[in-house]
Amino acid sequence: MRLRRNQIITHRGLEPDRPGFFSESSYEAFADHLGRGFGGIEFDLNFTCDGEIIVVHDAGLGRFTDGRDTRTFATDITTDEARAFRFANGRIPFFSEVMKLIRTHNSTRINALHLKGRFQEDKYLTLLVAAFKNARDVLDQIIVFDVRPKTARCLISELPGLRLAPSVAHPYDIERYGTAVGNTLLSVDEALDLKREGLIAGVWLDEWDLADRDGGTKTLYNADTFARLRASGLEIYLVTPELHGTSPGLYGGESPPDAISKNLLYHRIKELVRLEPDGICTDHPEEVLTLDA
């Protein structure tokens, strides 16, 4: 069993297996990944201080300037400044440009928009709703994930056709990491409740690691979890273990134990492929395609 190319979601423009590839979160990286026929891109919303929606992962410019510029986007950086900024190999895209890329490449239904907890406030949701109303023709190609229940109700009331997914984690991971991600992690039971309300189309499964309380082990990605979610009619998307190691500020900046080597990582990904998710988000899109599960 192998994944199909249209089941792969590339992670915020990263592709570390290709030396010299475009910078993460850059317009050029997203255009490249969609142009190569992957199922979709995972991308993060951000905002300028004067209300424009941009697509970039970090809160500010610190990591991209080796700490020389400590300003943050939503409070300090104007639209013109964001437009002029250059990564090492690419530029910051605007939301409208990413929508155009998705439209142009006619990708599948699994472009994953990460709506971080800090932007699930009325002033930002108002801007997002207005932007989506100008991109209604691509709503069916996007799934917005990490949404809190209140946010889901707000967005669906304004955009009934929008596909939403909460980030779903194991209870122990919610306890350990929920605060770090703005309390957006939900349990499987909470996700099923949202499905019964008619608010969500899928789930974004997030298995932080295999560690459990008192030195035990656990899994979130398993046949029982998938059976419960499938029985409710939910689409299932998941992230591969290495993603937390490439997300600044999460997991202590280190890779989870099942991602400390390519052999361990690919062994775990093969197990995930056998569960038959609708999409897998990974930093290694081409390599994952070659794995025989």
Compact overview of the structure:
The protein is α/β, with parallel strands linked by helices and 293 residues long. The protein contains eleven helices and 13 strands. It has one domain: Alpha-Beta Barrel (TIM Barrel).
Commentary on this structure:
The protein is α/β, with parallel strands linked by helices and 293 residues long. The chain is built from eleven helices and 13 strands. The strands form two sheets. Strands 1, 2, 3, 6, 7, 8, 9, 10, 11, 12 and 13 form an eleven-stranded mixed sheet that branches. The longest helix is centred in the C-terminal third of the chain and has 13 residues, at 262-274. The termini are close together. The mean pLDDT is 93.
Task: Outline the fold blueprint.
Elements (H helix, E strand, L loop, with lengths): L7 E4 L15 H9 L4 E8 L5 E3 L17 H4 L2 H6 L1 E2 L2 E2 L3 H11 L5 E4 L7 H12 L8 E4 L3 H10 L4 E3 L1 E2 L2 H7 L7 E2 L1 H9 L5 E4 L17 H9 L3 E5 L22 H13 L4 E4 L2 H5 L4
Parallel strand pairs: 1-2, 1-13, 2-6, 6-7, 7-8, 9-10, 9-11, 11-12, 12-13
Antiparallel strand pairs: 2-3, 4-5
Helix pairs in contact: 1-4
